TrEMBL record:
InterPro entries referenced in this protein's UniProt entry, alphabetically: CobU/CobP, P-loop_NTPase
Protein name per the record: Adenosylcobinamide kinase
Annotated catalysed reactions: adenosylcob(III)inamide + ATP = adenosylcob(III)inamide phosphate + ADP + H(+); adenosylcob(III)inamide + GTP = adenosylcob(III)inamide phosphate + GDP + H(+); adenosylcob(III)inamide phosphate + GTP + H(+) = adenosylcob(III)inamide-GDP + diphosphate
Active site, renumbered: 52
Keyword Nucleotide-binding in annotation: yes
Keyword Nucleotidyltransferase: yes
Keywords attached to this entry: ATP-binding, Cobalamin biosynthesis, GTP-binding, Kinase, Nucleotide-binding, Nucleotidyltransferase, Transferase
Top enzyme category: transferase
Biological process annotations from GO: cobalamin biosynthetic process
C-alpha cells in the first residue's frame, strides 16, 4: 500500500504534465485511479472524455468528479487528479466568480481529500506566466488559480515543474 504522499505537477499548456503524472502513477501501481475533474459541457466533450479513458487503458480506475473529490474512498490508492485548473473553474463558475468563496471551499475540499492515506498526484496549470488578461473575470480566475496552486504546493511533498516535456523537480 502506498504511504500518504502529495505531488504537484505544474507547468504551461501542453508541457507534458498529464503524461508525466500518468507514467509516475503507473510506476507506483498496477491499478491507479484517474480522478477527472472536468465538467462535461456538451456531447463533443463527452466523446473526448471517452477517448481519453480508452487511451489510458483498462488498468486505470476512472472516476469523474467535478467538485467533491473527498467523497471518494481513495485509501491505499495511487491517484492522479487531473486537473486542479478545471476543478477550480467548477467552484469559480458555481460561485459567480467569487474568488474568496471559491478559494475557501477549494482549500477545505483539498484538506478533506488529503486526509486519506493515498499517494496523490495533482496536475495543475501555471496560467499566470503569460501577460495580464484584459478581461477582469480572467484576472480573478488567474488569482484564484495562483493562490490554490500555492496552497497545494505548500502541503506537497514534491513539486515538479514541466517545461517542454522535461520534469524539473522544484521541491522534494
Amino acid at each position: 500500500m502506498p504511504h500518504k504522499h502529495i505531488v504537484l505537477i505544474t507547468g504551461g499548456q501542453r508541457s507534458g504534465k498529464s503524461g508525466y503524472a500518468q507514467k509516475l502513477a503507473l510506476s507506483l501501481s498496477t491499478n491507479p485511479v484517474y480522478l477527472a475533474t472536468s465538467r462535461v459541457w456538451d456531447e463533443e466533450f463527452r466523446q473526448r472524455v471517452l477517448r481519453h479513458q480508452a487511451d489510458r487503458g483498462p488498468e486505470w480506475t476512472n472516476i469523474e468528479e467535478e467538485k467533491y473529490l473527498s467523497h471518494h474512498n481513495l485509501n491505499g490508492r495511487v491517484v492522479v487528479i487531473d486537473c486542479v485548473t478545471l476543478w477550480g473553474t467548477n467552484f469559480f463558475f458555481d460561485n459567480d466568480s467569487n474568488v474568496e468563496k471559491s478559494l475557501t471551499e477549494l482549500k477545505e475540499e483539498f484538506n478533506r481529500l488529503t486526509q486519506q492515506e493515498a499517494y496523490f498526484i495533482f496536475v495543475t496549470n501555471e496560467i499566470g506566466l503569460g501577460g495580464v488578461s484584459p478581461d477582469p473575470v480572467q484576472r480573478k480566475f488567474t488569482d484564484l488559480q495562483g493562490w490554490l496552486n500555492q496552497h497545494i504546493a505548500s502541503r506537497a511533498d514534491e513539486v515538479v515543474l514541466m517545461v517542454s516535456g522535461i520534469p524539473m523537480k522544484i521541491k522534494g
